[in-house]
Structures are given as structure tokens and as C-alpha cells.
Known about the structure:
The structure is a homodimer. Chain A is α+β, with helices and mostly antiparallel strands. In chain A, about 55% of the residues lie in helices and about 10% in strands.
Amino acid sequence: MKFYDLSGADNKRFSPFGWRVRMSLAHLDIEEHTEVELVKFSQKDKLKFSGQELVPVIQDKSTIISDSWRIAEYLERNYTNQPTLFSSPTDKANEKFVSSWVDSQIHPLVAKCVVRDILDVIDPNDREYFRRSREARFGMSLEEIVTNRGETRSLLKRTLFPVRKVLELNPFLGGTSASFADYSVFGAMMWARITSSFDILEEHDPITDWRERMLDLYDGLARKETARG
Amino acid sequence: MKFYDLSGADNKRFSPFGWRVRMSLAHLDIEEHTEVELVKFSQKDKLKFSGQELVPVIQDKSTIISDSWRIAEYLERNYTNQPTLFSSPTDKANEKFVSSWVDSQIHPLVAKCVVRDILDVIDPNDREYFRRSREARFGMSLEEIVTNRGETRSLLKRTLFPVRKVLELNPFLGGTSASFADYSVFGAMMWARITSSFDILEEHDPITDWRERMLDLYDGLARKETARG
């Protein structure tokens, strides 16, 4: 199986959606059977075979799947004998809820904290494209986007309220062990961790304890990636 | 079992948390075994025995439980032989996520749409208290809070994004059938439906189809309550 993931300079892998897939592969204990193909912003023609231009993409023999949610569904269906990423159909619907919530309400806030810093960790050839496309999307310069990131972090803290409520009752969003909901929120954390020295969580936020647990999972898979300190 | 629920004038029951419990009781097919005690804002001394002053409260022989989440947990533990509100421990954690998300991100927006209208449906004796306490909370008059509710509804629509994404895949947030996550979001809808003629969903929002399905559940339990048309 081939796994196409986004890459910055020095093979830095920071895509939040890539991290969802990476953690899911480890969860299902099939990461070792996966060959990783890194794709820089300027190498999107590598993804042409998939009929779209966004990572992550999985190619498993003749099967080609893009979109982290559909990849998780595919892996669950083909690589386990029993449900493990989604414990039941009801749970699966709820995991979809959490991942869509991250897409729509967490990613924009994390972007507003770290988008300027991403520029420094991507390949120099990708910087002009990145600056131009992101500045068009936000309607201001990368530097302006992050100017008030202390305030953005406060808003992010309030938005993360439901995460905090679940973690009051359980060590993971999935309950006693991590599930796709955890990987979805954690993907956003890894996106920031690899690209920026700005901590998107305030000190003493109980979510930091959960983040440490997530960094420890699967022999410290995520912790081994070089954080931008 | 006795179920203490909030009441306005003419026994109108509009509490979003009360609706979570009501739908859960119907889900578990025990609504008939429940005696309802209505509590107006000015009758909070009726709840004194529970050691706090918020509805909903359940009294089951010597057991007293407040807080809709803890009530659901209690009902699930004591009135079923198999999981039905929460299909698995992982699912339960995710249902907690959705209900906490409704508490923190949906209720404030619904309140900003209907808080002025609530005044008209509560007992005349409760109106002074209601106005004073809500105006203090929002820092402006009830009339000012709802002035731009068209805009609030647009923000609500964007915030409901994850609900829409799950409903693209399934008829209910719980998948093929309704679960506590559905009742949590639906509680917010009923809160608005009973108290206001302002529709918090825009026309053509696919969530309206789900709302119709929810109104039909359990022999039209929720539809039978008089909406403010």
C-alpha cells in the first residue's frame, strides 16, 4: 500500500489530514506495510492518478482513495476483522461529527495561529505559491493573519470546550482508548507542532495532558517527528 | 419515577435539556412510567430536595439525579438490559462530545434568536425575573439581543456544519436510528419551536428534513406539543 502525504522542507510532514491517516495506520498496526510517498506543494502532479490534487491519498493495488475520512473507512473495512476505528455504526456517525467539527471550527483557528510559520518549513520553491494562495484566501498578508494570535488562541480554547468535557470523563475522546475522533483533533495539534513554536494551547489547559498521551501512542510515533521548538 | 421539567404559561415545556430527557425516556420506552412535575421559574423551591435549582431532575424512589447527561446515564444503566442510548463506551464518549458542543456552541446562538420571544410564553409572574437575569447575562435588553437574528441564524448555519456532514451519510446523528446526540441537537430545536415563530433554520437547509424525522419519532411525541406558529 502506498500512502501519499504532504511534505515541507527536510521531509517535514505536517498535514493535519495526513496525521489522521498516519495515526489510523498505526492504530490498525499496518503502518509497516505502507510505503510513504512525500508530495510537496509544487509536486501535485504526483497525485494526478487520483483524479484530484489533495493529500492524503492511499493506493492499494488498483484501489485509489483520497480524503482522510474515506481512507479511514477503507482501512477499517479491509484491514480488520472487527471494528476498531469505529466501534459501532452509531459511533462511526459520531466520529464523522467530530472530524467535520475539526475541519470547520478548529482548523481555521489553528491556521490563524501558524500560517505564517508554515512558510518557513516548506520547500523554498513552494513559498511563493503558498503565500499567494493563503493571502488570497484570508484577504490579508500572512503576517497580518497571525498578528493577534493570542486572541485567536483564546477563541480556540473556548471552541475546544467539548473536548475538555469528554476528557473530564475519559483519557481519550474515544473513551478508554484513542479513536478517529482523537486522531482528528490531534492532527490539528501536530500541524501546529511541526510548523510553529507557538503553542496553540494555553498553559494549564487540561487538553495538554491528553496531547502528551497522544504523543506517546504507538511507541511515540508522533513525538519522534521533530517539533519546531 | 418523577420527572421535573421546566414550564411556561399553559404548561408549555420548552427546556432544551428537558427535551433531551423526554426523548430519552421515549427512546427507552419508559415515558409512561414517569410522572411529570412542571416547575416554573418562580417555583424553584420545588427542586430544593435535589440540592440545586436547575431542571431537569429525576427522582426514582430514593435516587435523585439532576443534569440531563447524568439522567441519561442513569436511565441507560437502570432501565435497559443492553446499551441503547449509547451503543459502546467509545460512542458514549462521542455522544458526550456532541451534547457538550450543543451546550457551548449551539445554545448561545439559539438564545440570541429567541430569548425575547420566551418572555411571551412564560408565566406572567416569571417575566420580571426572566428579563432581569437574561439582560444581565447578555449585557443588553432582550430586544437588542434579537435585533440581528438573521445574522445570528447565518452563524448558526455555519456552526451546524458537522451536523449537516453526518446527515449526508445517515438519516440520524446516531446513524440509522436516533441517539442522545440527536436528542441534544433536537432539544435546541424544540426550545425555539415552542417559544418562537422565528425559524432558526434557513429554508432548504437539509437539517430541516432531519428535524421533521425527529418530530415524527415516538408517535409524533414532539410534534404534538403546540409550536408557536
